[in-house]
Design goal:
Blueprint lengths: L2 E5 L4 H16 L3 E6 L4 H6 L3 E4 L3 H9 L9 H10 L3 H11 L5 E6 L4 H9 L3 E5 L23 H29 L19 E4 L16 E3 L15 H10 L6 E4 L8 H14 L3 E4 L14 E4 L4 H4 L5 E4 L3 H10 L3 E3 L8 H11 L2 E3 L7 H9 L6 H28 L8
Parallel strand pairs: 1-2, 1-4, 2-3, 4-5, 5-6, 6-7, 8-9, 8-11, 9-10, 11-12, 12-13
Length: 424
């Protein structure tokens, strides 16, 4: 039996796939510990995994309510301090306590430097899971950044990365060098994201090749797998009979789903625009958010608010999905073969890049949130069927084709890091 320590930081879209991987590892007989915020205790324990607390529910909500999380320029530094560096020492102590030398492996979300630190400090085999292509730098074909960093030729792009590291990323991440020094690593790391962050045993892309083809300057230890589709559970679920009744009522005119994902609690303007677009079209709509306060007080009879509905059950039965561009929502739309309209948030780390890839696939479009109006959104919804059904059906088939092999492949790759398990 292998002991696998999974570390995941972020929102439900960051936790749910790693919970799914943990379940698959547990079914193989491994002892799985998942380190996450208390907000996700229910999801993780319901999956039968050992839950390890990393931060309180209050801390999670404070992070969501902090305006810096949605600031176009301050969001990444905020994420560095409040997400990447949160509870690092506590997590390292826990990893050290339960490490069984020779029988332990780590799967770390790309937001969790504890995996890289544990490999360096404790020599534990580590796999870095990368849910979004945005994490993988390429001077040859750079991902599209929400920071609107100018892009050019290879030399220009390398120079831009150097400036971003020097002035934006490395200053808040200097705490990692302090932690490394406490364990005897006196030589400081410069430009964490150039080499150090990905210097692990394996970097696993949790997305398929057709969504983001491998670039020549990606890490040499990179491997594609596929999207991990896992709905998870919510602390407050909408009873199935409520949303099922609406879908049956509007079977002849399937509704449009509007969602901004779980980490966004102050999107009043966005939801009002969506409601107004539904009024313009006289089309049924579903507002999907756990935060009731951002839902307009007055809704037409054909627009309903639900706190949580599993994407896998809902999306195949709707007209289109208007969302923020989170990678899990993108993947769920692709699996359902439903058109998607992406409206990235101001501080969305990966959303612009995900939206660009959706447009390239020909299965959706991307709109600017700053200039969004009810009429623009209504026009986009009317045009949704123009995103050819053939392409949407093709990628839905591709998702279905590898659905049964993606998790076993990821488990095999993790087991190979130890060298004594079935994946070898």
């Amino acid at each position: 039996m292998l002991r696998v320590i999974i570390i995941s930081k972020g929102s439900a879209g960051d936790i749910n796939p790693y919970t799914g991987i943990g379940q698959a590892l547990k079914e193989r007989g491994h002892d799985v510990h998942l380190i996450a915020n208390d907000h996700f205790r229910l999801t993780i324990e319901k999956a039968g995994l050992n839950f390890i607390s990393m931060g309180t529910e209050d801390e999670y909500q404070q992070g969501i309510d902090d305006p810096r999380a949605q600031h176009p320029r301050k969001s990444f530094q905020f994420l560095c301090k409040e997400l990447f560096l949160a509870h690092v020492r506590k997590n390292l102590d826990y990893i050290h306590q339960i490490n069984v030398h020779g029988d332990t492996a780590i799967l770390a979300h790309a937001t969790a430097p504890e995996g890289r630190l544990a490999r360096e400090i404790f020599s534990i085999p580590t796999v870095l899971g990368v849910p979004q292509p945005m994490w993988l730098r390429s001077a040859v074909n750079p991902p599209k950044s929400s920071l609107n960093i100018p892009q050019g030729g290879v030399r220009w792009n390398r120079a831009m990365y150097c400036l971003v590291d020097r002035f934006l990323l490395d200053p808040p991440l200097k705490e990692l060098n302090i932690i490394r020094a406490e364990y005897g690593f006196k030589e400081p790391v410069k430009r964490f994201f150039k080499h150090w962050w990905f210097d692990v045993d394996l970097v696993v892309g949790l997305f398929p090749k057709w969504f983001a083809p491998r670039q020549p300057d990606w890490p040499g230890n990179f491997a594609h797998t596929g999207f991990v589709l896992c709905d998870g559970v919510a602390n407050e679920e909408t009873p199935e009979h409520e949303w099922e009744a609406m879908l049956k009522e509007y079977d002849a005119m399937p509704p449009v789903v509007f969602t901004t994902g779980t980490p966004f609690a102050h999107e009043e303007r966005f939801f009002q625009i969506e409601v107004d677009a539904c009024r313009t079209l006289e089309r049924p709509g579903i507002l999907l958010t756990p935060y009731s306060a951002q839902v307009p007080a007055s809704l037409p009879a054909y627009v309903r608010h639900f706190k949580f509905v599993p994407f896998s059950k809902l999306f195949p039965r709707v007209f289109c999905v208007v969302h923020h561009g989170g990678i899990n929502t993108v993947a769920a739309c692709l699996a359902a073969g439903v058109p998607q309209i992406i409206v990235p948030t101001k501080g969305g780390f990966d959303q612009v890049d995900n939206g660009r890839r959706v447009e390239t696939l020909g299965v959706g479009c991307m709109l600017s949130r700053a200039s969004l109006t009810p009429s623009k959104l209504a026009d986009a919804i009317l045009s949704a069927e123009a995103y050819t059904g053939d392409k949407r059906a093709h990628y839905a088939r591709e998702m279905e084709r590898v659905r049964s092999t993606t998790l076993p492949t990821i488990c095999d790759l993790i087991e190979k890091q130890i060298g004594r398990y079935p994946g070898c």
